[in-house]
Amino acid sequence: MKRRRGDLSVRGVEKRGSDTPNRKRLTVAIAATVLLVSRLDRDAGTPRLRGAERVIRALRSHVKPPENTVNGTDASAASNERLQIVEMMRHAWNNYKLYAWGKNELKPISKRAHLSSVFGAGDLGATIVDGLDTLYLMGLMDEFREGRDWVAEHLHFRDIDSDLSVFETTIRFVGGLLSCYALTGDTVFRDKAAEVADALLPAFDTPTGLPFSLINPSTKASRQYHWAGPNSILSEIGTLHLEFTYLSDVTGKDVYKKKVDRIREVLNTIEKPGDLYPNFINPRTGQWGQRHMSLGALGDSFYEYLLKAWLVSGKGDAQAREMFDAAMHAALDKMLRVSPNGLTYLAELKYGRILDDKMDHLSCFAGGMFALASTTLDNAVSERYMDVARRLTNTCHESYVRSETKLGPEAFKFSGAVEARAQKSNEKVYLLRPETFESYFIMWRLTKEQKYRDWGWEAVQALEKHCRVQGGYTGLVNVYHKKPQGDDVQQSFFLAETLKYLYLLFSDDSLLPLDEWVFNTEAHPFPVKGKNPLYRAAEKPAETKENRV
After folding, report:
1. What global pTM score does this model have?
2. Disulfide engineering: 252 pairs with which of 37, 70, 218, 538, CB 3.0-4.6 Å?
């Protein structure tokens, strides 16, 4: 997750031609069979996962192996790694269920609910909604069904009397619910996604159409973060497009898409200093705030969504790709730096000058982003994008291996003798973040270089050694301590993103192939329009009062 943070033709991999319809049917068959087999195995008293995985392997044996495999091997060689990660998911989920069910997040050391999360003390079940599609992909169907039933019976947003982040609610709740709808076709998920989005709509009632950051669904009052003054945040207003556009397509209600199209229009037409987008913008005036620019916190996922809006539209949203390439040309020219020892990183700018020679962990998604940009459009910058992808992913890996725990800090500096290490105490934390593993996964899929799986497995072992406790998984206060103290928070995105990307890193390419699925910034997979039969677009526009112009 990045916070305050169509046909994807991969060069070097031949298209499968007549094999594509069979692969599409297989995608649907796998999903249905996992559910069926898990039920049969449960009734027979045999391990659920083992049965589901057995049938998945049998089905996948009919798929033509990827043509860019290494020495003729594929993900079947990584079954032990996958099973280990599935066990980690069950440990995280079962302890959440035991100690914090229905609450937003778990305190795994204290073994109670975490009441000061980004969603507060309410019973919104953030961990449930965020983790559901991961459970489904791993074949943990009993857990998936209990989560689905909680959503159907207990998830209600209209009467919530507290301030919620429009951005966080969109990427975790709307995104997670839409992903489950795509995977299953269960309309409970689609309808709940619409209910959540409807609760957010009053935040968009501004002179420019740019939303405020926070909304109280009960009072419909909106406001900004106190620390941001009158401004909204670029990475927040710019990271709603995938969810709201897809929600319009599956409900037939264009009200959601109109909201994000208006945001796009404002950001496309506004004057951009040096072709870059500052991180703060006033939704009342449409003017930039302070000229701070970053591909890390406050800016990151806006750029990610320009690329992914183009991808998920089946490459129909040409404007998004044009905006992405223009912004990346400026970013690589002004932000990309190389340390004295050859590590590549993305610095932050203020008023066009380097503000700080540091890189956020949040920026570590960028390796995967540049790799996707490189392999999905063959143009003059494709080779440079892939070179940058490799170098940034390597730098993020270095931030991990240079710590005692082999887990990466929240931010790391490049100054003097210090490279890829945190200096401030608040930057030495590890919050169970996924961004580095996201890049490992995408780089593995697109290059098949074994080092990315090796690095991912090193991370799994580090998570087990330092973050696993009896009550779940905890973040760390200082990654440079041999025996680090836990922060006592099991983030919902640990289930949604961290474990999902690690699982996919060791899975076959036919599980969520990158030419048919695009991940939102919370790792919830969305089907590619016009390419993936699970897109499930509504047959006709909905006839509702809100949908009339």
Report:
1. 0.87
2. 538
